[in-house]
Specification:
By secondary structure, this protein is of the alpha+beta class. 43% of the residues lie in helices and 16% in strands. Strands 1-2 form a two-stranded antiparallel sheet. Helix 2 packs across helix 3. The longest helix is centred in the first third of the chain and has 10 residues.
């Protein structure tokens, strides 16, 4: 059995919305140029870098672990 961790962009968008945070507010907090840039990360056009995740967790008031879904895969023997 193998446990895979998949990055969960849906959680990131949902969490931002739960906090009633606009794309512009998220962009400013993440030190990005504008809302359009942040939206491209949130929608998966750009990929979040590992070094961005601690700041993203702080902005979204959650743990970096929340950004990943665990998927259990059975392996053939």
């Amino acid at each position: 059995m193998v446990i895979l961790k998949i990055f969960n962009l849906e959680y990131i968008k949902q969490r931002r919305q739960e906090l009633n945070m606009t794309l512009q507010e998220a962009a400013i907090a993440m030190e990005m140029k504008n809302a359009s840039t942040y939206m491209k990360y949130e929608n998966g056009t750009y990929s979040f870098k590992a070094e961005q995740l601690p700041l993203l967790a702080k902005v979204l008031k959650c743990s970096t672990e929340n950004f990943f879904r665990k998927i259990i895969a059975k392996t053939a023997i």
